[in-house]
Amino acid sequence: PLGPKAASQTKAGVPGVTHIVAVASGKGGVGKSTVACNLALALAKQGLRVGLLDADIYGPSMPKLLALSGKPEVIPGRRILRPLVAHGLKVMSIGFLVDEQAAMIWRGPMVMSAIQQMLREVEWGELDILIVDMPPGTGDAQLTMAQNAALAGAVIVSTPQDLALIDARRGVAMFRRVEVPILGVVENMSSFICPHCGGRSDIFGHGGARDEARAMDVPFLGEVPLTMALREASDQGEPIVVRDPHGPEASVFMDMAAQL
Ligand code: ADP
């Protein structure tokens, strides 16, 4: 689906960046940031030059997920920021720039201008793909971003649960409204594999996102299992694709990357 860059693109892109891909969800807590981070790493493992923009202003996750701290330096004379680097990814997050409490109370226009700055006033350099971890939901900030950022496409993350799926449907509708192609739907927390007995439990159900993708006529990109290993890796700042590159979770992300 991510072919060569469209020549007739009217929205403003980011110079040097071939494709901007949003990772979005209709609501918070479904694992959008987890997917964005591991998908970015999986794309980098394919040999692509990848950037990761944490636009989840109200709950930036990348500093913790990638164990990144410190302030990005301002490039002398150019008034742009140098992204931080983790596992070969160039990363920018509002979490590097302001303290979390401050951004929590920003109104829409502040959020939008912060996202615009992180897109355009950062030295992304030459990238094949810039993955954007969107703020959850389908409000103004998301719509503006989808409208203005020359997105090549969007990946929608959902759990298998009915409620999350309703929100995922809203997400798909929002991107369709602004003519951003849906690259696919990911089912996260798909099933739980017990680390003791190896048995499987479908805690949030199973297969709902695949069915929903079919009903909406969009690609289905895979099922990420709910596992302790994934959660621990994330909490410890070493994403599962890096920690256990041949494990069951990483292989889902590698497959996903191959489909984009
Ligand atoms: P969102 O970005 O949608 O708010 P996060 O990616 O921050 O969600 O995930 C929410 C929490 O769930 C985090 O603690 C994360 O480590 C955990 N989590 C997400 N996906 C999985 C999974 N497949 N297995 C285990 N834990 C997960």
TrEMBL record:
GO biological process, one term: mitochondrial respiratory chain complex I assembly
UniProt-annotated binding residues for ATP: G26, K27, G28, G29, V30, G31, K32, S33
Domain of life: Bacteria
UniProt keyword terms in alphabetical order: 4Fe-4S, ATP-binding, Hydrolase, Iron, Iron-sulfur, Metal-binding, Nucleotide-binding, Transit peptide
Cofactor: [4Fe-4S] cluster
Membrane spanning residue stretches: none
A molecular function GO annotation: ATP hydrolysis activity
Keyword Iron on entry: yes
Record text on subunit structure and interactions: Homodimer.
Family of the protein in this entry: Belongs to the Mrp/NBP35 ATP-binding proteins family.
Role played: Binds and transfers iron-sulfur (Fe-S) clusters to target apoproteins. Can hydrolyze ATP.
UniProt name for this protein: Iron-sulfur cluster carrier protein
Full-protein interval shown: 103 to 362 of 381
